[in-house]
């Protein structure tokens, strides 16, 4: 059924704002927390930067909308990557659905982890579960997306931006290095100065890396992709008439929904 476009906005805006808002929120909370003496300047973990008032409220106000946009971003990635997969292989890979699902779960877990941060008593179990789940789900989802992009690139290089793919691969490699360092630090005594905040440093670098993945989409991948709000033509729907009525009335209902336009590069060789 034909539809009418009543408005549109660049899809890349979602990728940019989701990452930029999260980074800005963390930076503001760090600045406030250190200026008030709640945490040391070098180097507190992100959680403690948001644990006390007023930074606790700033963190929630910024991170919950940012995580909601990350959740939305995974729906757009699903549409975009599915269109590319259809163009390259003639079918949509199941990895795409799995990656988008993992990404949405990761975004939800980060909302949970951000919402429960509070002064003592702090629900550390819930927070750690949510934060760890975010890194695992999002990191694995980004890995699946990058794998799928690489597969498409091998078949039809014109559909994929090579620079973006290379940077995505570098980000994931760096995250793997951080994971190995953090794991070894928990198992073996690493040759680092006593009191060096290795765990906090790994956390900061991991967060920046995961969010930087969104910036690659904003910068290179979705230059011509739009999110359009459309309206279907009015539909005539029957209404059940009362028993004593001699006729039935009709009503019209406009269904408003989102339609994700394919990236322009998907429409040409």
Structure, explained:
This protein is mainly alpha-helical and 269 residues long. 62% of the residues lie in helices and 10% in strands. The C terminus is likely disordered.
Structural class: mainly alpha
* Helix content bin: 55-70%
Q: Roughly what fraction of the amino acids lie in strands?
A: 5-15%
| Major beta-sheet overview | 3 strands, antiparallel
User: What's the helix count?
Assistant: 7
Shape: globular
The overall pLDDT average reads 86
The rounded Rg comes to 23 Å
- Return residue spans where pLDDT drops below 50 for at least 5 consecutive residues: 237-269
Secondary structure tally: strands: 5
Note the gap between the termini. 27 Å
Order of helices and strands: EHHHHHHHEEEE
Instruction: Name the strands of the widest sheet in spatial order.
Output: 1-2-5
List keywords for this structure.
about 270 residues, mainly alpha, 3-stranded antiparallel sheet, two-stranded antiparallel sheet
